[in-house]
Amino acid sequence: METYPLMIPGAMPEGKNLVVCAPFDGSTIAEVQTGRSEAVNIALETAHGLFRNKEAWLSPARRMEILEETARIMQTEADSLALEAAREGGKPLIDSKVEVARAIDGVKECIEILRTQSGEEIPMGLNAASAGRLAVTRHEPIGVIVAISAFNHPLNLIVHQVGPAVAVGCPVIVKPAEDTPLSCIRFVQILRRAGLPEEWCQVFMTDELDAATQLVTDSRVAFFSFIGSAKVGWMLRSKLAPGTRCALEHGGAAPVIVAQDADLDKAIPILAKGGFYHAGQVCVSVQRVFAHESIAKEVADRLAVAAGSLKIGDPTLEETEVGPLIRPREVDRVEDWVSDAVSKGAELLTGGKRIGDTCYACTVLYDPPPDAAVSQMEIFGPVVCVYPYDDINEAIDRANGLPYAFQAAVFTKNIDQAMRAYKRLDASAVMVNDHTAFRVDWMPFAGLKESGLGVGGIPHTIHDMQIAKMLVIRSGEL
Predict the structure, then answer these.
(1) Residue 384 lies in a domain
(2) In which order are the strands placed within the sheet that holds 466-474?
(3) Range of the domain at 419
(4) Closest to 365 in 3D by CA, of 251, 262, 281, 289
(5) Model confidence over 259-289: pLDDT tens digits?
(6) Residue 51 falls within a domain, yes or no?
(7) For residue 329, what are the contacts with CB-CB under 8 A and spacing of at least 6?
């Protein structure tokens, strides 16, 4: 069993080693050394010192070279990266391979943005006050980045947070999820093999909540990137030092409206993928399906058939379509929520049972009551609820009735119905005839209301990690 060192130059391990276990069978994969307060101080002092020494900044050309080599190494090692991500995170190998491909493309996206981004000219000479002046902007790094990440996409989320920081020249300290630190560590190792000096990207793991809070709330942090639960994200945001910018990506309870004219032959497999992909452990996973009452039971029954046909098991096997939940206690929680919904009147169409200690059967519930947990909160498990509606405005009101707003969807052949849903749904993105979990890594990805703050997506994160610094030149020749 491999033990990964604390990736903070000059810091010594202070806490207990973190034991990383496979969520499917509980087998130990590796251990990771941890740090505490002293490691935080060393990491921040190193990162802040790098940023303050502008003579030592890495040039754009050098940063592009490092990222290009990083992408090349990742491509060479794609199969092993996918297998290890599946093993530590539980996402099936078929989907982990897609994640690795996305991560490689994300690194390339960072390079392309560096090649194409530019400043702007601010109009001058328009009045007496601006006469004889030229004003332009160029981009500079914002400062030290601290990134805290989630478990469900253990490689690609890190690329979304660390890749832009490296691209723009910000020193970055990243804390991956405790359940899935190995993909992050491997990515940072690859960056270093590609030529990034180790001080520019440090990995911090800790066994103390206070140390993690200390890292985030230090006044030397210029930008805080958080992907995880709303409870933790909003709490940390409230403690940020004055001047620290942030982006928070939480979760939701993604709504889908299925209109009376929807093509169910196409819609059902799409909804099944969006609802049960990675066992529903996706922040925009299909959760609440509002189907017209004339087809609602058919939608639910057909979705149940699709759910029941999915192969659940070992995520490292090619044939597995749905893997485990990240921890056994999450299986317990999902089981409790489903039992609660059924006891309150929901009809259980398929699933509704645990498979061993770590997996839960893909579950479809018909018409859970509004006060059931599955109707009120993010399930983050392999459960989809189908609710009948009479009028599309009623469906939209119910879809908007929770304090979350992320991505939503509508299935219809009628452009006017699609546009009505697009206009009225509380969401940062509305998919037409597609599931709510659709994403490509260059599009804006934003949680609204309690679902987050700011805009994700690689170009948007790069924007957040830079400042537009203006230069004004006064000359009689202008």
Answers:
(1) yes
(2) 121-122, 133-141, 466-474
(3) 254-440
(4) 289
(5) 999 999 999 999 999 999 999 999 999 999 9
(6) yes
(7) none
Q: Is the pTM of this model over 0.85?
A: yes
| Rounded Cα distance, 315 and 357, in Å | 15
* Both tokens assigned to 465: 């990690």
Contact 468, 119 (CB under 8 A): yes
Q: By the 8 A CB rule, do 154 and 177 touch? A: yes
Query: Choosing from 283, 359, 362, 385, which is the catalytic residue?
Result: 283
C-alpha dihedral, 299 to 304 to 306 to 309, nearest 10°? -170
In a domain, 476, yes or no: no
- Burial annotation 173-188 (CB, 10 A radius, 16+ → b, else e): bbbbbbbbbbbbbbbb
Whether 280 and 330 map to the same domain: the answer is: yes
Active-site annotation holds for 283: yes
Answer yes or no: do 237 and 258 share one domain. Answer: no
Question: Is 128 in the same domain as 229?
Answer: yes
Encode pLDDT of 133-153 as tens digits.
999 999 999 999 999 999 999
| Amino acid at residue number 304 | A
Are residues 294 and 421 located together in one domain of the fold?
A: yes
Maximum separation of any 2 CA atoms in the chain, in Å: 81
Q: Which tokens go with 466?
A: 């830079």
Does 360 map to a domain? yes
CB 259 within 8 A of CB 411: yes
Catalytic residue among 14, 99, 249, 450: 249
Single out the residue of 468, 466, 442 nearest to residue 456, CA to CA.
Answer: 442
Q: Are residues 168 and 261 in the same domain?
A: no
Q: What are phi and psi of 318, to 5 degrees?
A: -60, -35
292, 197: one domain: no
